[in-house]
Specification:
The protein has two domains: 134 residues, Virus Head Decoration Protein, Chain: A (Beta Barrel); 71 residues, F1FO ATP Synthase, CATH 1.20.20. The protein is 41% helix and 24% strand. The chain is built from four helices and eleven strands. It has a six-stranded mixed beta sheet, with no helix packed on it. A five-stranded antiparallel beta sheet has the order 7-11-10-8-9, with no helix packed on it. Helix 3 packs antiparallel against helix 4. The protein is elongated, with a radius of gyration of 30 Å.
Length: 261
């Protein structure tokens, strides 16, 4: 009887051991498992690997090659949770929403958890984003390396979109316009923001030029009627020109705030 009880105890012990080992194995695999649905994409590159950042171009899908690429599409994954793939297909699985391992570098500084990740000048690799622009997603892990050209992999929450969270960072209005011009598709909110910025800018210029035209005509008429008050009239014209420039600058300033906030 005692012998049977010992066998039962040993059996239960081994059962618990194997269950724990199995759970640890599952959790270890889950850490490297991409979440979301991976779709088969034909990529026009000779070499493509797990974690490469893919961008959509007029010549098809390719590896990203410059920072803040507005056409960034997703990330190559070899270990997706769910995938849709045809048999004997030469397409590569790419995830555009979810979580996946991404190739990154410290070319723009060390990466900390919750930093936005964008494309970089290193082909197929990402970097930390520190200005407003298009990003691939948000880092879920830290990464640092003294060699800026070294490549590592971190888990990233994939969600390509335009990021405008850097309120305190000064960006060039022309650069913002260039980024938007290169974007194939913008979210409705982002589109509305740029539309409002364009309307405000155009309106301020129109109002400024109309006001300036009236001032110039009135000033010439007043000067013709009273030549002796030429200096006062000229001073008034100068003040009104400054006010016109102020109207235009205020309009451009409001448009700029719409873009960065």
């Amino acid at each position: 009887m005692i012998y049977i009880n010992k066998i039962k105890t040993i059996s239960v012990f081994f059962l618990i051991f194997f269950l724990l080992a199995g759970l640890l194995s599952v959790f270890a695999q889950t850490d490297n498992l991409a979440t979301g649905i991976a779709l088969p994409i034909l990529i026009n590159e000779k070499r493509v690997g797990d974690g490469d950042i893919i961008t959509a171009t007029s010549d098809g899908y390719k590896l990203s090659s410059y920072a803040y690429d507005p056409s960034v599409y997703g990330v190559v994954t070899t270990n997706p949770a769910v995938s849709l793939r045809e048999k004997n297909s030469k397409a590569t699985l790419v995830i555009s929403f979810g979580k996946a391992l991404v190739r990154v570098s410290t070319i723009n500084g060390p990466i900390k958890k919750n930093n936005p990740i964008t494309s970089s000048s290193i082909k197929g690799a990402g970097q930390k984003a520190d200005v407003n622009g298009f990003i691939l997603g948000i880092a879920l892990e830290n990464y640092s390396n003294s060699n800026p050209n070294a490549i590592g992999k971190i888990l990233v929450s994939i969600d390509p979109h335009y990021n405008a969270t850097f309120i305190g960072v000064r960006t060039n209005l022309i650069e913002n316009i260039k980024v938007v011009a290169g974007a194939p598709l913008l979210s409705p909110l982002t589109t509305l923001r740029y539309l409002l910025a364009a309307i405000v800018t155009i309106t301020s210029f129109v109002i400024g030029f109309i006001y300036f035209g009236r001032i110039a005509r009135t000033g010439v008429e007043a000067l013709g009627r009273n030549p002796l008050a030429a200096r006062m009239i000229q001073l008034g014209i100068i003040i009104n020109v400054v006010l016109t420039a102020g109207i235009i600058l205020i309009g451009v300033g409001i448009a700029y705030l719409i873009l960065i906030l």
